[in-house]
Structures are given as structure tokens and as C-alpha cells.
Amino acid sequence: MSTTTTTAVAPLTIQDAEILVTAARRAAESAGVTVSVTVLDAGGHLLAFRRDDRAVLISGETSTRKAYTALQLNAPTADLVDLVKPDGPFHSLPTALDRPLLFIAGGIPVHRDGRLIGAIGVGGGAPEQDHGFATAAVTELV
User: Fold this and answer.
1) How far apart are CA 66 and CA 70, in angstroms?
2) For residues 38 and 133, what is the distance between their CA atoms, to the nearest angstrom?
3) Per-residue pLDDT for 4 more than 70?
4) What average pLDDT does range 92-98 have in this prediction?
């Protein structure tokens, strides 16, 4: 009889979420950009959200949709942009599903010990900036 040992991976905690939000905002502030930051757990539930006072209002929605997209597809949204272009294999995905997907850079999945535990989304800057702020935050968590 063989036994399989499964090691539990700690879920994304509120403390983790606060580290992510703080790190993303710090990166954005140092670039002079005002942003919104959303952190979701592995189930897609909101763990943390913060919108800078001067961030454009839509950044709250875009940060949340970027996090959701990164979580659902387990990939940085920056890596998905070309897949939904008219000639891309996922062209119809944004409209085929009744889900808040957004294929703009700025969403990053969060992993612990190789397991998906959540995602972060940043909105408010240029897509490349948002991707950089989210990446900096995830790096800070490790």
C-alpha cells in the first residue's frame, strides 16, 4: 500500500494582501503614478483594495478585473494581451464568458510553493507601469 503525502500550502492571508498593496503603491509612488490595487484570494474573493485619492475612478474596476483575469487563467495579464487580438486563439474569450475579464497588463497571479494562492491587479498607470508595480509587489511577498 502506498501513501501519498500532501503538504498543505498556506493560503494568501490579509497580512500578505497588505504587503502586496503597500509594495505596489510604493512602486507606483516612486514613479509618480496614482493607482488602485486589488488583491484576490484563490477563490476570487476580495482580500484587499486601495485606490489612491487622485487615481482615475475607473482604475478601481480595472485593477479588480486584471486580478480576476490573472487568477482565472493563472498567468500575468501582460502575457495574454496578444491572445485576444482579432487573430489570436482567445479572440472571443472576453465576450464569450459572462465574467469580468480584462486583457490589459497589470494583473499577476500569486503563487506559494508552486501553488496558485491569489492574484494582484494594479490599474491607473500605463499598462507596462501597472505590470511593473504588480510584479514588484509579488517579488516583495516572497
Assistant:
1) 6
2) 12
3) no
4) 74
| Assessment of whether the complete model's pTM goes beyond 0.85 | yes
Could you give the CA distance from residue 46 to residue 124 in angstroms, rounded to a whole number? 19
Sequence-ordered list of residues with C-beta below 8 angstroms from that of 12, at least 6 positions apart, any chain: 39, 41, 42, 47, 110, 112, 117, 118
C-alpha distance from residue 136 to each of 9, 95, 130 (Å): 22, 31, 10
State pLDDT tens for residues 41-61: 999 999 999 999 999 999 999
* Cell triple for 123: 490599474
Alpha carbon 47 to chain centroid, angstroms: 12
- How would residue 5 be classed by pLDDT, with cut points 50, 70 and 90? low
How many Cβ atoms sit within 10 Å of the Cβ of residue 83?
Answer: 14
